[in-house]
Design a protein that fits this description.
By secondary structure, this protein is α+β, with helices and mostly antiparallel strands. The chain has helices at residues 14-20, 29-42, 69-73, 123-129, 137-150, 229-237, 259-265; strands at residues 9-10, 57-63, 78-87, 93-100, 155-157, 161-167, 176-185, 191-197.
């Protein structure tokens, strides 16, 4: 059986569970060795095996086996074990496992440490890069949701696309780049997710073109440039500001206004002519 079709040993498998808990009781050593050969046939085993034929064994990595708290902090999911056989006091043969100390970074499987930004080695982004075909658009959208739940601070899920920041060493300078994931219809049916760099930069301002006046024309005579379509729509939807209207009663008596007082209130200098006295002519 090829390695591709062999299974990863886990404590949930009945055979592996019987080994780590020492449940097997076999009639002879030959039966025990036959069990060891079955393990080599159906499970992925280590390339480094013991060569002692008098004491047969199998070395393999078992998921969920004897993981310590320290290993969990480093992302450990299992441990290497050396499976051997021995005779019990009652004459039966049993299989048992011996846990081996191997650094977590050398294990075939380990939990990915928590990171602020994913890279394209992330399992979900690998599916995107491999152009995985989804049977329905809901399955593709579910991938967006899973990515967002794992990286909520650097992702924005939309209906059929997603904005996300991805760590990539291929970029010089800042390795964290912005990307857009789009759900597209596959050529042969189904849906795929395409990835492209998000080159939009809202911080960059468009250059301002200075409008020069023609000779003899004042700038105030030039019409204002029309705003964009979006701005026009926003302005169109904007409610006008209402100003209170003062109503004047034409029949109401109008107050008398002193022209001199009004002129003084405006700051104008007013000269008031003194009344002229009547000339009296004395008799000669």
């Amino acid at each position: 059986m090829s390695t591709e079709t062999k299974a990863v040993a886990t404590v949930n498998n009945p055979t592996i569970e019987a080994i780590v808990n020492e449940f097997f009781r076999l009639a002879s050593k030959e039966q025990a060795i036959e069990r060891l050969e079955t393990i080599k046939e159906y499970f992925i085993v280590s390339k480094d095996q013991e060569e002692d034929q008098s004491d047969p064994s199998v070395r393999l990595w078992i998921k969920g086996y004897a993981v310590t708290p320290g290993q969990e902090e480093k992302g450990g999911l299992g441990n290497f074990a050396l499976v051997k056989c021995r005779q019990t006091p009652r004459g039966k043969w049993m299989l048992y496992a011996i846990r081996e100390e191997v650094e977590v970074n050398k294990h075939p499987q380990k939990r990915r440490p928590k990171q602020r930004h994913p890279n394209f080695g992330h399992p979900l982004l690998r599916m995107v890069k491999k152009k995985t075909v989804f049977a329905s658009v809901e399955e593709a959208r579910a991938l967006f949701q899973r990515l967002h739940e794992e990286f909520p601070a650097i992702s924005i899920p939309c209906t059929n696309k997603m904005y996300i920041m991805v760590y990539s060493r291929q970029h010089e300078g800042n390795p964290v780049q912005k990307y857009v994931l789009h759900i597209k219809v596959a050529d042969k049916g189904g849906f795929i997710i395409e990835v492209e760099e998000n080159t939009y930069d809202g911080a960059k301002k468009k250059p301002v073109v200075e409008m020069k006046s023609a000779p003899g024309t004042l700038p105030k005579d030039q019409p204002k440039a029309a705003v964009g379509k979006f701005s026009s729509m926003v302005q169109l939807k904007k409610k006008p500001t209402s100003m209170p209207i003062q109503r004047v009663d034409e029949n109401a008596p109008q107050p008398k206004v002193d022209p001199v007082a009004a002129a003084k209130a405006d700051g104008a200098k007013v000269e008031v002519a003194e009344p002229q006295k009547d000339e009296v002519t004395e008799p000669a």
